[in-house]
Design brief:
Layout lengths: L2 H21 L2 H16 L1 H7 L6 H12 L5 H12 L6 H15 L2 E8 L5 H15 L2 E8 L7 E5 L2 E4 L2 H12 L2
Parallel strand pairs: 1-2
Antiparallel strand pairs: 1-3, 3-4
Length: 179
């Protein structure tokens, strides 16, 4: 997630979440946002939605045609607003932020664990248990691998980041030494 796109996406995600709460359609909105995020992330569609030569009406019609029955009237309205304000590239971040809000509402938190090596399922379970005790919430873990960390893990849970990686320790040491 880009910092700029998160800043742009947050008010949309919060507004959609509030509307989903009002209408008791959290799951429907989650599905629509996931679908739309996947559509705008497709390379061919992404080229069209950022192309200044393509008019807003054509972009909107393309997405409405692709969405078809997947979209409610409110989903189509969201697309109209995003097209008019040139915010379509923020859709994946809107979906991510929406899911974070939904998890918080459900009493859970999404935690991203990045490690130098793939985590074994039993390690993920132990980590989830420890984080559940620390955070007081159910924990939904997603893990990924980043060899640049050298060793250890980096954990992101909402705004909290725990950097227990070798690369993070080396970077901190370099900062302390003024290098």
């Amino acid at each position: 997630m880009s910092v700029d796109l998160i800043t742009i996406a947050r008010p949309y995600a919060e507004a959609v979440f509030a509307r989903a709460m009002e209408t008791d359609t959290l799951d429907k909105w989650a599905d629509m946002l996931d679908f739309l995020a996947a559509v705008v992330s497709d390379a061919a569609v992404a080229d069209v939605i950022v192309n200044p030569a393509v008019e807003h009406d054509r972009r909107l019609q393309l997405l409405l045609d692709i969405g078809g029955e997947q979209l409610t009237e409110e989903g189509r309205n969201l697309l109209r607003v995003l097209v008019e304000n040139n915010r379509l590239p923020a859709l994946p971040d809107i979906a991510t932020l929406f899911h974070q809000l939904k998890s918080e509402h459900d009493g859970a938190i999404d935690v991203e664990v990045i490690s130098a090596y793939a985590l074994k399922p039993e390690v993920e379970k132990e980590l989830a248990s420890a984080l559940k005790k620390k955070l007081g919430k159910e924990v939904n873990i997603s893990s990924s691998k980043d060899p640049a960390l050298i060793g250890g893990v980096k954990i992101r849970a909402g705004d909290m980041v725990i950097d227990g990686s070798v690369a993070g320790a080396v970077s901190q040491l370099a900062n302390e030494l003024g290098i």
